[in-house]
Amino acid sequence: IRRYMEEKIQSLSKYHVDIIGVDAEVDKSMHHRHGEVFHVRRNIHIPQQMIHVEKTMDDLYAAIDDCRDAADAEMRNRKEKFGARRRKAQRVRRALKSVFGLRNRSS
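Below the sequence we write its predicted structure tokens.
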């Protein structure tokens, strides 16, 4: 199970190369109607942020896969959000540079 979880975590490095650490927790409980229920929790530590993902299912491997998919989606969203902020800042910098550059030439 540990090896399987580590393989799933390795695929997340494509979104953020600076994964500082990962905390994973797996619990098994007996539900009175559903039988065995597995809880998978992951905390993925990246610089200045932490991503928390938690899934509960009847199948352990399905819970691990769903947890990985949720972490994948969260990391993709954060990467896109960071990229949008960065692109906006670059546009503002270029605009300011062109405005101030024109003033210096005309003076």
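DSSP finds two helices and three strands in the chain.
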